[in-house]
């Protein structure tokens, strides 16, 4: 793509070679195409190439299945970065802890389905990224718990969010294992919170005044979805799958972003 644009004329070549085109880096669809074509090894090198072209001026980075190498390179040059979306990444806690200090200006962070980032990495983000106003940490669907499984509730991530991300306005936390204890801490500490998504957090019961407090928010998605909403979600998924077939019809190559 970049190579083709550069061939149009000298002025265009100078533009794509400079940082002006790369303040907003959205590679998510391209990265998904790589994964479908079994070429995920291309993701980190391409991210490095585009970040280098931005000359550390990029304000948004959106990828998919980003690895440690790509994250460390981008983060170390991310002093201007405001939005970081890296769902399904392979980044580890150790790499987050080492490089997160460069991301102090982040306002929106999406680490949904990033299973290698645990409480340690989450705490590092919360401690260093004090400008965060929107945090997304949706996790994979898990089965509705029985009374025996209810003991699997885990509030550690929720408590870390409450302790280190007091300025949050939006929190997307679907299919996490927090309980009422975690919700209580978040509502108490994150006083600027206006949007809360806890769909699929089936250990939450909203006892006492928790339900009333949640419903006072501008937008609240409860742990439970009724049958009508399920049908809407299924319909939307079918449409997305249809769109994906056309989006991913071509296999990517390393030359796509040369």
Automatic annotation (TrEMBL):
Pfam families on file: LRR_6
Positions of region (Disordered): 229-258
Compositional bias segments (type: Acidic residues): 236-247
Biased amino acid composition, Low complexity: 248-258
InterPro entries tied to this protein: Leu-rich_rpt, LRR_dom_sf
Taxonomy, superkingdom: Eukaryota
Protein name (Swiss-Prot/TrEMBL): Putative F-box protein FBW2-like
């Amino acid at each position: 793509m970049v190579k083709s644009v550069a061939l149009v004329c000298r002025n265009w070549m100078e533009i794509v070679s400079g940082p002006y085109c790369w303040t907003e880096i959205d590679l998510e669809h391209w990265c998904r195409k790589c994964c479908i074509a079994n070429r995920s090894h291309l993701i980190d090198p391409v991210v490095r190439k585009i970040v280098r072209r931005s000359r550390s001026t990029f304000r948004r980075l959106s990828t998919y299945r980003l690895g440690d190498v790509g994250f460390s390179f981008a983060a170390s040059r991310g002093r201007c970065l405001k939005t970081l979306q890296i769902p399904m990444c392979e980044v580890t806690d150790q790499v987050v802890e080492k490089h997160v200090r460069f991301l102090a200006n982040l306002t929106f962070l999406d680490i949904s389905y990033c299973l290698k980032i645990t409480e340690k990495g989450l705490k590092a983000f919360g401690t260093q990224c004090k400008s965060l106003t929107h945090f997304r940490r949706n996790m994979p669907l898990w089965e509705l718990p029985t009374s025996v499984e209810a003991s699997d509730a885990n509030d550690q991530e929720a408590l870390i969010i409450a302790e280190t991300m007091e300025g949050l306005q939006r929190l997307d936390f679907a299919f996490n294992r927090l309980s009422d204890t975690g919700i209580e801490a978040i509502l108490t500490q994150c006083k600027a919170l206006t949007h809360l998504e806890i769909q699929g957090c089936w250990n939450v019961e909203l006892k006492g005044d928790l339900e009333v407090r949640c419903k006072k928010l501008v937008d609240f998605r409860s742990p439970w979805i009724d049958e009508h909403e399920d049908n809407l979600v299924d319909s939307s998924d079918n449409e997305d799958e249809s769109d994906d077939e056309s989006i991913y019809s071509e296999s990517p190559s390393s030359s796509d972003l040369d």
